[in-house]
Amino acid sequence: MAKATVKGDKNKVKRLQYLLTHSFCAKSYAVKKVTSNKGKNTSGIDKKLWSTSSSKMKAVLTLSDKHYKAKPFRRVYIEKKGKNKKRPLGIPTMYDRAMQTLYALALEPVAETTGDHISFGFRKEEVLKMPVNRYFVY
Predict the structure, then answer these.
(1) 78: which strand partners?
(2) Disulfide check for 92: which of 68, 96, 120, 127 has CB 3.0–4.6 Å away?
(3) Which pLDDT value is given to residue 126?
């Protein structure tokens, strides 16, 4: 996808993104990523968790963009660090998290190749030391 983006072949990029988002491997990777992170035991508004292997397989088979509409977030209030106040936190459903992960897989290569090479904010695989090293050579 990155090579097609650099070449400027937008049709090929769209085809590759379609193939990726509809492939079984990418769907299973998205479900694995959602069920193996720190928030795997936090359910959304539908109170569903994918804890068993059969529920994970069912989730892989049901991931589809046909008639997809995101469900509302479950609103939870958590304590602020060092203060007595609470702040709101929205928790999406497991299905919505998997769909976000699946489409992030398709969008990240394009975003990384077309993005500014000097920009370091909110990018994967970038650390804070990169911009410092760019301007201060030892």
Answers:
(1) 87
(2) 96
(3) 61
